[in-house]
């Protein structure tokens, strides 16, 4: 059942949302490079103890600050709700550590301005040269599991570089507040009947330190998929394989 209208919109306002925690080293550069491609850049500083918020604002972003760290998903929810209430048609999500190239924003916004975008996810698997082997394996496995659950092939479900039509926001808020929210929003969007597309993006890994916690976040992912199983009646193919991999850590 279609949850909301997918009527094409050729003119639209697009805002970039950057959830950030301890990104003082890269945030100003990311903001400056993103600004030319969108109508607004909003940074949600998730309780950083460094100068992330100040540097983002000086670079030209609007900034919302969480008093305490709540998780990436919570920061995304704060920003998505704010931007939707302010009347933006699309929300572009990207990370503040430099792993997403702002120069590739047009690959997403072109679909938005053509009126054909509802959920668009970056796909790094067309060129995995810069992706560590372990991440390549885990991302590929998780993408297969989530694609099965969504009923549509999503090559890189773990990519945080994505575009969301703001009319979907009320359908995809979910209950997760950490990295698993990025998975939950795809599950909820597919359940609501919205189209999920992918566009190729670069694989960029530098000196930044990942905030993903392999064991804890794998457990969160398994719990999320179990909730989905209880609600849908089936566990997507590959989930048992991931559970086994997590048990062997």
Average pLDDT = 84
Main sheet properties: 7 strands, mixed
The main sheet orders its strands as 3-2-1-4-6-5-7
Helix content: 25-40%
Beta content comes to 5-15%
How many strands appear in the DSSP assignment?
7
Looking at the structure, the CATH topology is Spore Coat Polysaccharide Biosynthesis Protein SpsA, Chain A
Please indicate the count of domains: 1
CATH architecture: Alpha-Beta Complex
N-to-C terminal Cα separation, in Å? 40 Å
Name of the CATH superfamily: Spore Coat Polysaccharide Biosynthesis Protein SpsA, Chain A
Q: Which structural category fits the helices and strands?
A: alpha/beta
Quaternary state of this entry equals single chain
Q: Give the helix tally.
A: 9
**Based on CA inertia axes, which overall geometry fits?**
globular
General description of the model:
The protein is of the alpha/beta class and 249 residues long. The chain has a single domain, classed as Spore Coat Polysaccharide Biosynthesis Protein SpsA, Chain A. It is 40% helix and 14% strand. It has nine helices and seven strands. The protein has helices at 27-34, 52-58, 72-85, 105-113, 133-150, 169-172, 181-191, 214-232, 239-247; strands at residues 14-20, 40-45, 62-65, 90-93, 119-123, 162-165, 196-200. The longest helix has 19 residues, at 214-232.
Annotation keywords:
249 residues, alpha/beta, Spore Coat Polysaccharide Biosynthesis Protein SpsA, Chain A, seven-stranded mixed beta sheet, 9 helices, 7 strands, 40% helix, 14% strand
């Amino acid at each position: 059942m279609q949850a909301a209208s997918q009527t094409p919109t050729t003119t639209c306002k697009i805002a970039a949302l950057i959830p950030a925690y301890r990104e003082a080293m890269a945030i100003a550069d990311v903001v400056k490079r993103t600004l030319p491609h969108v109508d607004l850049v909003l940074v949600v500083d998730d309780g950083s103890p460094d100068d992330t918020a100040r540097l983002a604002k000086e670079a030209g972003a609007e900034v919302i600050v969480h008093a305490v760290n709540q998780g990436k998903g919570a920061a995304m929810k704060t920003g998505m709700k704010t931007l939707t209430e302010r009347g933006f048609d699309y929300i572009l999500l990207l990370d503040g550590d430099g792993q997403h190239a702002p120069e590739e924003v047009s690959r997403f916004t072109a679909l938005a301005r053509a009126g054909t975008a509802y959920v668009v996810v970056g796909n790094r698997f067309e060129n995995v040269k810069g992706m560590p082997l372990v991440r390549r394996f885990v991302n590929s496995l998780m993408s297969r599991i989530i694609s099965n659950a969504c009923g549509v092939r999503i090559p890189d479900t773990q990519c945080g570089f994505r575009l969301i039509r703001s009319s979907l926001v009320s359908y995809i808020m979910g209950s997760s507040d950490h990295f698993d929210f990025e998975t939950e929003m795809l599950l909820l969007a597919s359940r609501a009947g919205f189209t999920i597309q992918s566009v190729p993006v670069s694989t960029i890994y530098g000196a930044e330190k990942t905030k993903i916690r392999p064991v804890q976040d794998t457990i969160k992912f398994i719990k999320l998929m179990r909730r989905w199983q209880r609600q849908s009646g089936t566990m997507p193919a590959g989930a048992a394989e991931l559970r086994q991999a997590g048990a062997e850590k």
